[in-house]
Fold:
Amino acid sequence: MAVEPLDMRLGTEAALARVVTIFGSAHPHHAYLFANRRANRMKVLVHDGIGVWLAARRLNAGKFTWATSGEGTVGLSRVQLDALALGLPWQRLGEAGIIRVI
Structure:
């Protein structure tokens, strides 16, 4: 996940160039996520091992819970990605949701 917003007018080639700039390269079987400044739209660039495809999602109400880390990128698990795409608080899933002390 890229922390900096993306211009949602960008197409596949420009999004791929942004992936290479931010992440260093586009690896097969990886998804790269970008949001707009208001975080109500998201684009996902996927490298499936054969080619790349670009998908977009827009929330009619509310906004995506986007990372605000000081770093330029944040890694997500599959469960966190699924939650993010639904507009749920993905930070509460995975390691962050484990209770270790009672």
About this structure: The first strand starts at residue 30 and ends at 35. The longest helix spans residues 12-23. The chain has a mean pLDDT of 85. The helical segments are 12-23, 78-86.
